[in-house]
Design brief:
Blueprint: H1 5-23, H2 27-31, E1 32-33, E2 36-37, E3 43-47, H3 50-53, H4 66-73, H5 93-103, E4 107-111, H6 114-117, H7 128-143, E5 147-153, H8 159-162, H9 172-187, E6 193-198, H10 200-210, H11 223-250, E7 253-259, E8 262-265, H12 271-295, H13 300-312, H14 325-331, E9 338-341, E10 345-350, H15 360-363, E11 366-370, H16 386-399, E12 405-409, H17 418-437, E13 443-449, E14 468-470, E15 479-481, H18 483-494, E16 496-497, H19 501-511, E17 518-521, H20 549-554
Parallel strand pairs: 3-4, 3-13, 4-5, 5-6, 6-7, 7-9, 8-10, 9-12, 12-13
Antiparallel strand pairs: 1-17, 2-16, 10-11, 14-15
Helix pairs in contact: 1-16, 5-7, 9-11, 10-11, 16-17, 17-18
The protein binds 1-deoxynojirimycin.
Subunit structure: Homodimer.
GO molecular function: hydrolase activity, hydrolyzing O-glycosyl compounds
Organism: Maylandia zebra (zebra mbuna)
Length: 563
């Protein structure tokens, strides 16, 4: 049942107060460095996805996916790059396992290539060699005590299913469910963390609105809503299959990875701007999170905006489809934990968008701008705004009833120097720590992106997110840990940023006052990174990270670092 108006009003007020609380923070407060550690058992992970790393695009019976078809036919990707070989992980499983072991991660997030398992997308085409590959990977992880966090669908739809209309068709709900059912039955004795779909908002908007990603349908006003509708139902059905058939025996959990930027209001003292920022959150994250984590239905902001626009556009009905009561009941509550992928923050302000052409983007009635004071990353529109992560986590806590949260992706592509990536992780993870330790957000895990340099979708191999360097000019695809891998290793080892001994006395004095932070800002606070090889650092076995030497040469302090 829908919540009463009074409760909804109160909730909205809480979110406003939250925005006000943070947005009125001084820059100095925002930059304070917080020492502390995460709770015991915190899940430190690293991520990849099948198309980005596996290669072997037609090896051993694998069927083509929409990304195979797209990259092999388009000329819009830099250097006409594709994932035909990528990091060749299909043939280099042991190297991957070695690196994961050396990094000492607690979990590894990877995805299954649907068309490697079912070449034509359906069970009748089962490819045992594909299944064997994932069995070896999962067994290898378990042997090293690394929890497999498995995404069932990370954008690489079997091409055969696209030919019968892909996610535009409601038939996909059952087809996806059968694929998931097979994976639960086959791998679920060892996989205890399932993610049904990665970033459905990207699938709906980039795949069917902008059309810059496969299946390259350009229809900004209609199809994204239809596709999202089917994706939500497909997710819910897979959840119920796990819940009904496997959970009791296998004891795992299942969720969906939603992408969320933080949208900061241009002026927190203007109600309309705060409402606009909230609406921006609802259009991106709430589109999927509201039905799944709240009441089975779309957020009011979405229903209201799209409904009103459609009416003014003289359409017979809203471009946003609606769920029946039965569907709402089926969808609500279909995630055990909240999984969020986060990369950046944007500043938004109110704007009355044109009525034509019909578009999800203009349905939002807002303008976006970059956060002015933050460092850029290599990717346009992805500035490194670490404080946005803390705000986002607090917003999720308020909006969705304090769920357990996993950050399932966070990272940066950097233009020149891996040292910038180190600074990115240092600042972002510290903000996650503040959310957990100071704000009471129930953060359960953090996943760095990416495991290694890999095929970065529309950017090919031009912008790379890896903590490990991969030499793509060498057929052996040698991998080498970067400085950031060492840094992340140390964070994992320390379970955060424990207060260093030489700061303790100072800190004790401060504790008599109200200050819980170090006075260091992120920029002034030293890195405290041991450049020793981790194997000299307490590892008892022979697995170690070997530092990429060219990157150590480049390490230097930036003159000004505005975090
Ligand atoms: C989100 C996607 O899930 C992931 O595959 C990609 O590498 C990152 N964004 C970085 O762009």
């Amino acid at each position: 049942m829908d919540q009463c108006l009074h409760c909804r009003g109160l909730q909205r007020l809480c979110r406003f107060l939250l925005l006000q609380k943070f947005s009125s923070q001084s820059n100095f407060d925002r930059q304070m460095y917080h020492y502390g550690t995460f709770p015991e058992g915190f899940s430190w992970g690293i991520s990849s996805s099948a198309y980005q790393i596996e290669g072997g695009w037609n090896a051993d019976g694998k069927g083509p996916s929409i990304w195979d078809r797209f990259t092999q036919t388009t000329n819009t990707i830099p250097d006409n790059a594709n994932g035909n070989v990528a990091c060749d992980s299909y043939n280099r499983l042991n190297e991957d396992l070695y690196m994961l072991r050396a990094l000492r991660v607690k979990s590894y997030r990877f995805s299954l290539s649907w068309s490697r398992i079912f070449p034509d997308g359906t069970r009748k085409s089962l490819n045992q060699k594909g299944v064997d590959y994932y069995n070896r990977l999962i067994d290898g992880l378990i042997a090293y005590n690394i929890e497999p966090m498995v995404t069932l669908y990370h954008w690489d739809l079997p091409e055969a299913l696209q030919k019968v209309n892909g996610w535009e068709s409601a038939e996909m709900i059952d087809i996806f469910n059968d694929y998931c059912d097979f994976c639960f039955a086959t791998f679920g004795d060892r996989v205890k963390f399932w993610i049904t779909i990665n970033q459905p908002q990207t699938i709906a908007w980039s795949g069917y609105g902008l059309g810059n990603m496969p299946p390259n349908v350009v229809d900004p006003g209609y199809r994204p809503y239809i596709v999202a509708h089917n994706l939500i139902k497909a997710h819910a059905k897979a959840y119920h299959t796990y819940d009904d058939k496997y959970r009791q025996l296998q004891g795992g959990l299942i969720s969906i990875a939603l992408n969320a930027d933080w949208f900061e209001p241009a002026d927190v003292n203007v109600v309309r701007e705060v409402v606009t920022a909230d609406r921006a959150m609802q259009f991106q994250l709430g589109w999927f999170a509201h039905p799944i984590f709240k009441n089975g239905d779309y957020p009011d902001a979405l229903k209201w905006q799209v409904g009103n626009k459609s009416e003014i556009q003289s359409l017979p009905q809203s471009r946003l489809p609606s769920f029946t009561e039965e569907e709402k009941n089926f969808i609500k509550g279909t995630a055990d934990v909240f999984c969020v992928n986060h990369y950046t923050t944007r500043v938004v302000s109110y704007f009355t968008a044109a009525l034509q052409p019909h578009s999800y983007e203009s349905d939002r009635d807002m303008r976006e701008a970059e956060e002015p004071d933050s460092p850029t990353t290599a990717i346009p529109n992805q500035k490194a705004v670490a404080w946005g992560l803390r705000r986002l986590l607090n917003w999720i806590k308020e909006e969705y009833g304090d769920p357990e949260i996993y950050i399932t992706e966070n990272g940066a592509a950097v233009e020149w120097d891996d040292f910038e990536r180190v600074m990115f992780y240092k600042a972002y993870i510290d903000e996650a720590l503040k959310a957990n330790n100071l704000d009471g957000v129930r953060l359960r895990g953090y996943t760095a992106t990416a495991f290694m340099d890999s095929f970065e979708w529309l950017y090919g191999y031009k912008f790379l997110f890896g903590l490990h360097h991969v030499d793509f000019t060498n057929p052996d695809r040698p991998r080498t840990p970067k400085y950031s891998a060492h840094y992340y290793y140390n964070i994992i080892k320390d379970n955060g940023f424990p207060l260093p001994d030489d700061e303790k006395m100072l800190h004790d004095c401060r504790q008599t006052g109200l200050v819980h932070h170090s006075f260091d800002t992120s920029s002034a606070q030293p890195l405290r990174l041991s450049t020793n090889c981790p194997s000299q650092n307490g590892c008892t076995d022979q697995v170690s990270l070997t530092l990429l030497s060219s990157n150590t040469q480049k390490v230097r302090w930036p003159a000004v670092w505005k975090y």
